[in-house]
Amino acid sequence: MKKTDICTIEHSKIIVNNEVIFENQTETFSEFAKEAYKNLALNYPKFHKMDNLSKLAFLASEVILKDEDHSRTALVFANKSSSLDTDFKYQESINSQENYFPSPAVFVYTLPNICVGEISIKHQMQTENAFFILDEFDEKFLNDYSEQILQSGKADKVLCGWVELYQESYKAFVYLLTL
Amino acid sequence: MENLREELKHKIIEVLNLEDVAIEEIKDTDPLFGGGLGLDSIDALELIVLLDKEYGIKLADPKKGKEIFASIDTMAKFIEENRTK
């Protein structure tokens, strides 16, 4: 298989194919993501409604997918902390009976695979997608799974990725695979 | 009532994360849904929570939301008539 494009996001930097395309020393991931969105001129207002895990996955995917046709690109992602970051935020909104205001907009992000849904919606993908929870990044596992999809002829490309985020600790490693 | 309209615009932008929308862009009679704000069904649920949290109004019949959330004007009028805080 060929790995054609690679994006890494960590330590307030977005690196595509070994080139830093955005860097900003902000205090929080939210601020970093907002600045990156503006700088990359993504023009997709729904981005602001996403939780941080989806923002991370979305940013890493956008710089690879761009505006090309990805109707035959599948998605295989994984991380360690699932949607725990958002799960805690949701829990906070329902902890107190006196201040009980569960947020529907936060609730919809209390599953990790929502982030691949966001990418699919943006690029109108109706291909296979999968999200695995793993102890650590296992490239062989993701590649083997992706190869099966490619060999089956159900997709021409697979966007693979490790998108880990919990509180202010985050890392995305996303790449495109073809046969 | 004018203050309430302005307050609502601020709160809607904040609660619905409409980062790219300026207050001046939301006119009092503009449709909140199906218009330029791009609001969806999850946003409608957030507005129901906003009524409860900020103004103490529990919407007994969610079907009335369509009428109440038609515009800033209709929302402000409903809040004025029904608020408990």
UniProtKB/TrEMBL annotation, chain B:
The source's domain of life comes to: Bacteria
Q: Does this entry carry the keyword Phosphoprotein?
A: yes
Keywords, ordered alphabetically: Phosphopantetheine, Phosphoprotein
Q: Which residues form the Carrier domain?
A: 1-83
The residues forming a coiled coil are none
Q: Does the keyword Transmembrane belong to this entry? A: no
Q: Per its UniProt record, what NCBIfam families does this chain match? A: PRK09184.1
Q: What is this protein called?
A: Acyl carrier protein
**Which species does this protein come from?**
Chryseobacterium geocarposphaerae
